[in-house]
Structures are given as structure tokens and as C-alpha cells.
Design goal:
Length: 266
């Protein structure tokens, strides 16, 4: 709770200004404003907030995403899910417009809900199978129409045990990509869970992202989604294990105590 109070005290005026003069109208009438403009405002706010809380980004293999989106192609990005801030941090990582599939409760969240609506995110009611299928189709249409990339967490919910294996993944989540015949880009992440955790008050919170592979439509053609999600889970598990090891070494060497003003340290 105290970190939320800190958010208000340190960045409350900025958040209020952007909410009143941008997010309210962007979220209510997104069709009136270019997506790039809406996304830039939301992304800049998120980047500022994460840096305010000592977020230190380490991004590996970005060329995988760049190659997959060459020529304006849109992709389905799949990742592991550890924290409430995973989606927001991924927006900070992605310069190109990115929408994510969120649980329906996110819609009503203060500021976060408006940010999500402003950039065209989709809200899923997991208890309603029909609505969930409609959301997957809507996500597929965003890819098919070339509107924006889409982020989805196949685990469906956060894995609160940071050292446990990844949760079971839902094969149906991949339909957003396969129906659109879009490439699927797999990215492992680790570290977002510390940003608003009262137990961690580092001078440098490592937010580590590693793009692992692009799976093209030609590569997954003929595969059942159950087989495909199993392959993705294995790839993600190996990637997350690697990031966990790096994270432990990062802390063991005391790099989390080095202020951000010192610049890159890797």
C-alpha cells in the first residue's frame, strides 16, 4: 500500500494532468485520435513511472521482433506472467503500438483502465466462454487488419511463485495468432514483480526481457494448438530459468544497489 501512496505523492500531479487532458478523451473516443498519438502518450507515462521506481531495462535479441514485424507485419507476442505490471512494462519496451488482452476487472481500474482503453486493449471475462472467444477473434482481427501487435499471457493468470515452473498454458490463447496467420513471437521476462513490492526497495530494479524465437505461419501450419502451446511453454520455461539465474547473479554482485544515474552497468 505504501508504494501506491508514493505513486500519488511523487507522480500524482503528472498522472492527474495526463488523465484529465488526454486519457479521459482518448479512452472515451479513441476513434477520434490516431493510434500512434494515443500510444505515445500512454507509453511515455509508463516509461516515466517505471524509471521513477528505478526500473532498469535489459532487453535481449530485439532483432527477433524487428525481423518478425518487418514491412509492417503484426505479430502475436506471448510471454510468461508474474506481475500486475507485466503488460505495462511490455508497453514501455515496445515502441510500436501494442495491445494486450486483460481480465475484465482492468477496465475499471483508475488510470490503468483508461490507459488500456486508450490504446485499444481487450478485456476478457474468463467466466464467460462465449465472450472469451469473441475477444480472441477481436485480437485476431487486430493482427489480420494490420492495426497493432497483440500481447497475450497463455498462463491466463499470474504465477505468484517466482521459482515454480510455469503454469499450464491455454492452447486457445494462440488462436488470436493462428486465425490471422500471423507470426508468434515468444519473449521471456523477469523482474517486474519488484516494482511495487514493499519488500524490495532497490536503487535499480532489473526488468529483464529476452526475445526467444519467432514461429512463422509456415512453421506452425498443420500443428494442433495443443502441440504448439507445449512447444512454446518449453521454450519459455528455458528462457525464464535463464533470466532467473541472471537475476540472482545481478543481486549477488550488488548491482541492484547501483543508482540509475550511473547509467548502463552490463
Amino acid at each position: 500500500m505504501w508504494k501506491w501512496i508514493r505513486v500519488v505523492l511523487t507522480d500524482g500531479l503528472r498522472i492527474l494532468w495526463i488523465d484529465l487532458f488526454y486519457l479521459i478523451r482518448y479512452s472515451r473516443h479513441p476513434e477520434k485520435y490516431p493510434l500512434e498519438k494515443r500510444y505515445k502518450v500512454v507509453r511515455n507515462l509508463i516509461v516515466h513511472l517505471l524509471k521513477s521506481y528505478h526500473g532498469y531495462f535489459k532487453i535481449e535479441n530485439e532483432e527477433i521482433l524487428k525481423n518478425a514485424t518487418e514491412g509492417g507485419k503484426k505479430v502475436l507476442i506471448v510471454s510468461n506472467h508474474l506481475s500486475f505490471t507485466d503488460s505495462l512494462a511490455m508497453i514501455a519496451v515496445s515502441e510500436k503500438p501494442l495491445a494486450f488482452v486483460a481480465k475484465k476487472d482492468t477496465y475499471k481500474m483508475f488510470v490503468v483502465g483508461r490507459c488500456a482503453r486508450a490504446i485499444g486493449c481487450l478485456f476478457m471475462d474468463r467466466s464467460d466462454l462465449r465472450q472469451s472467444l469473441q475477444i480472441i477473434r477481436s485480437a485476431s482481427n487486430l493482427l489480420k487488419d494490420g492495426t497493432q501487435n497483440v500481447l497475450i499471457f497463455p498462463e491466463g493468470t499470474r504465477n505468484k511463485d517466482l521459482n515454480a515452473p510455469l503454469l499450464d498454458m491455454h492452447p486457445g490463447s494462440l488462436k488470436a495468432g493462428t486465425l490471422a496467420k500471423a507470426s508468434i513471437v515468444v519473449v521471456a521476462s523477469f523482474g517486474n514483480h519488484r516494482i511495487l513490492d514493499k519488500e524490495h526497495n532497490y536503487k535499480r530494479h532489473l526488468l529483464h526481457y529476452k526475445y526467444l524465437e519467432e514461429i512463422t505461419p509456415e512453421q506452425y501450419a498443420g500443428m494442433e494448438t495443443v502441440e504448439l502451446i507445449s512447444k512454446i511453454r518449453d521454450t519459455l520455461q528455458a528462457g525464464v530459468n535463464e533470466l532467473r539465474e541472471y537475476d540472482a547473479k545481478f543481486i549477488e554482485e550488488g548491482k541492484h544497489k547501483i543508482p540509475l544515474r550511473k547509467g548502463d552497468i552490463d
